[in-house]
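Subject: two folds for Thursday's group meeting

Dear M.,

Sorry for the delay on this. The cluster queue was jammed most of the week, so I only got both jobs back this morning. I'm pasting them in the order they finished. Each block is the input sequence followed by the predicted structure tokens. Could you check whether the formatting survives your parser before we put anything on slides? The first protein is the one we discussed after the seminar.
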Amino acid sequence: MLRYEEVLDALVPYNFWGKPQETGIEREEYLEKIETFCRAGNFIIAIIGSRRAGKTFLARQFLKRKYHKG
């Protein structure tokens, strides 16, 4: 089990506060699907795919969208 501090350290690279994050070209269709899943309830959403397919960028885009919406 990870300690609270270890979880925070792992999330630091994805923190949008204080520094710009490269998010690439926004994929509206995928972002809308993730948003729909989030509204459906308390589920864990996994973004899966082949290597270098854009999973991390998609997650960053989603976080950026949520951050800017408040």
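Second protein, same layout:
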Amino acid sequence: MIKKQEPDIPVTSSSGNLFADLGFAEPEEELAKAQLASHIRQVIKRRRLTQAAAAALMGIDHTNVSALLKGRLGSFSLDRLLQLLTALD
């Protein structure tokens, strides 16, 4: 049985910042926002909070918690994400 040779797929090493690799305008800020959102998700999960309970603790709408947990961070500044994390801890 003869095996087909797989075509070579070009691979590029990461710079360590996905947002820089993808050409975002402010990659360092985007990475920091993603890291803060990840910490917020971890706290919510660790404390077994519902989205409604997390929203009440952070002082934001349930829809904003949903967006945050889904990684939709465009409407959140770094400062705001830090405030939200502080409100949870």
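Two things I noticed about the second structure. Helices lie at 18-21, 27-46, 51-58, 62-69, 78-88. Residues 14 and 22 are 10 Å apart (CA to CA).

Cheers,
T.
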